Structure formats: C-alpha cells, structure tokens
Amino acid sequence: MNLTLLTQAQQDWDNFIGSLSSEEKKGLVDVAESAASNSLHYFAAIKDAVKFDQTINQLSNRCLYDEEIIPTVYSYYVERDMHEIAFDYLQKAFEYFTANGYPIPSIVQEILEASETVKLLSNYRISLERIRNLTPKNIPRVTPEAINDKRELNTFILNEIVQAGRVTDEKREALRQVTHENRYNDFLQAILRMRFAIWGWSIHDQPRMGTSTGGADAGNADLVIQTGGNNIALIEAFIFKDFAYTQMHILKCPQYINSISRYYIVVYHFNSAADFETNWGKYKDDVLNISYPEDFAINSSSGFIDITNQFTDVNNFKIAKTIHDDKYEMFHIMLNLK
C-alpha cells in the first residue's frame, strides 16, 4: 500500500476526531470499529506493533475477519516472525466464514494454501520439542482439545486410557481368541505408547517393584507410566471374575508404588453383554467392601463416584473413581468386550 496516502488518510481522520466535541464523538459509535479496522493498514505500514495489537484486540469478528483486512493482518504477523499466531489467525478466519455460511474469499484461500511455510513448520517442531520438557501437570493445559480435552492430569490420563479402550473395543473380534489378560494389556500398552511418546512419557509393563501381595518378594505391576524416569501413574488391568480377584488386584496398587497419587483399574468384561450393568454393580459393591489398609482407606462419604457421563462414545464402558485416604484417586474403567 502507498504509505503517503495511508498517512494522509490517518491524519485526516485524527484531525476530524480532534475537531469534534465530546457529545459529537458519541455519535460515532457505529463507525468507530470500522475506522479502527482501517487504521490497521496504517499501523502495519509504519510498523507500530503496539497500536496494531491494541487495535486488533478491540475488533469484533465481523471486522477482524473482513476480507479486506485479512491479508494485512496475516502479513504483518509473519513480518514480525509471529508465524504461529499468523497461522492461527487464518484458521479462525476460515472457521468464521464457515460457521456463518459465507463463501471463503479467493484471497483468503490463496493465503491459506501458502501458509504452511518452512518457518511455521520449524516453529511448530520447536514447540513440540519444548512440550516434552513440561512437567506432567502442564501437559494437559497445552494439548489441543481434539486430542484430549481434559485439563487436569488425573482425568487427562484417564481419557487417554478411555481412548485406547475405544480401539480395543473396535478390535474385539480380532481379540476374541485371546484368553490371557496380559495379552490385552500388551495391546493396551502398544496404543498408549504411541500416544504418550509425543509428550516424552513412557509406559512400561510389569516391572518388579514394591512388595508382592504375599509380602515375600517384589510384585508385578501391569503398566507404569513414567516421565524422566519418575513414576506418575500405575495401570492395573484384569479380567472381571469375582470379589477375591478384584480385591487382590486393587490392593496390589499401593503396595507396588505408594509415592504417586493416581491409580487406574481397567476391568475386561467377557460375561454376557446383558450382564454388563449387573456386573458393574457387583464390581462397585466389591470395591466398597474391600478391607483396605488404614493408609489407603476409601473415603466413605464420597464412595464410588460414577463419571461415565463425563465422556462421549463410551456405550461399552463404565467409568468411576474412588478417593483413598483423601490423597489418592483410583479410577475404574470396565470395558465390555463380549
């Protein structure tokens, strides 16, 4: 754009505003936003990033994603080496046109097609590498909702297990001949390992740690989630059988690792599908009736909290949590594979 003409236009507008009384300025409310939008061209041309950003923050979507202003905003962000923000702005513009049923302007389509630059991709790569250095509790806060929409670490991990369970559910026919629960754990572990790698987490099967249920030797935990060599969660998985079997597996957890605050119980249900609801009720009663160690006692006031409705596409799942000694959370996922 011609800087001389832009400067003259901006000065004319500023002089006009300066000549108005306070009462007269009130009558410009309807045109103020359009004027501010036009000023963006001038601020970008004179490289006034402060006024540019201040003005951007004042605009509604109608002006912010106007066809005439989009090329200027995008180009100035790129010029300032703000490639991720520029790309995000384009994506939001696209979403705005789509949501309102507007056709995508050809100039916007052209910019979109050329927006995935080497510089942008390089910045994203660096960002992904930095994610791996975040503490576990902050990983959920930067993960896109399309991948995992839970923002607390405990439920974030739970949602990862649920998503892996969906894949297991979809592959039930292929897994029908599997009879040993460790094979199911291998399948679950393979799915989670692929998802966890991007955050620098690892998942390990059956390391020997803690004490066994008999107290004589270290036991075998099913799956342990780690980051930087530190344990952050334990997954204990087994086939639904009876009270004694459930009790044995659940009491393993604090014996294996008592330095973490989150445990995940995955229960594979192979009984008749018609019995799924009934057996979930039996499992709930079993969990509540276990004789827990004093330092892992279940919180009787909260009890067995069903949270299945906090998740979508879980017709073959039951999900709950229990609180132990007011500092441990144990999540229970029953997956109907019959």
Can you put this structure into words, describing what you see?
The protein folds into two domains: 3-131, no CATH class; 136-336, no CATH class. Helix 1 packs antiparallel against helix 3, helix 6 (70-79) packs antiparallel against helix 7 and helix 11 (153-170) packs across helix 12 (181-196). Helix content is 49%, strand content 15%. A seven-stranded mixed beta sheet has the order 1-4-5-6-9-8-7, sandwiched between helices. Strands 2-3 form a two-stranded antiparallel ribbon. With 338 residues, it is an alpha+beta fold. It has helices at 3-18, 22-25, 29-45, 49-56, 61-64, 70-79, 83-99, 106-114, 118-131, 139-142, 153-170, 181-196, 243-256, 276-289; strands at residues 201-205, 208-209, 219-220, 223-227, 230-239, 262-269, 305-306, 317-324, 328-336.
Number of helices: 14
For the biggest sheet, the summary is: 7 strands, mixed
Residue ranges: pLDDT <50 for 5 or more in a row? 211-219
Number of domains: 2
- Helicity, as a percent range: 40-55%
Euclidean distance between termini CA atoms: 67 Å
| Cα gyration radius (Å) | 28 Å
Strand count: 9
What series of H and E elements makes up the topology? Answer: HHHHHHHHHHHHEEEEEHEHEEE
SS content category: alpha+beta
Strand content: 15-25%
Short description:
This protein is an alpha+beta fold and 338 residues long. It is built from 14 helices and 9 strands.
